[in-house]
């Protein structure tokens, strides 16, 4: 599986860690706010490395990568992180 590197301008959430799954969604501006529907969330893949504000994830070759303006989020495996 290829890797993708995500570089953030701000400090990462303290709870993000290797093994979490990264996702993204593209937002739209509505009434002065950016929003996105639940159906617009796309899985990037498992986080494999974190160095400062740079995150490396495995990504399926057919997944369209996020843009520079995409909203990035992550989730934890609830079997491990209750």
Structural notes for this entry:
By secondary structure, this protein is mainly β. Helices cover about 0% and strands about 45% of the residues. The chain has strands at about 5, 20-25, 30, 35, 40-50, 55-60, 70-75. The strands form two sheets. Strands 1-6-5-2-7 form a five-stranded antiparallel β-sheet, with no helix packed on it. Strands 3-4 form a two-stranded antiparallel sheet. Strand 5 (about 40-50) and strand 6 form a beta hairpin. It is globular. It starts with a strand and ends in a 7-residue tail after the last strand.
Q: Termini distance?
A: 28 Å
Overall geometry: globular
The overall average pLDDT, rounded, is 89
Strand numbers in spatial order across the main sheet:
1-6-5-2-7
Largest sheet: 5 strands, antiparallel
Using DSSP, what is the number of strands? 7
Low-pLDDT windows of residues: none
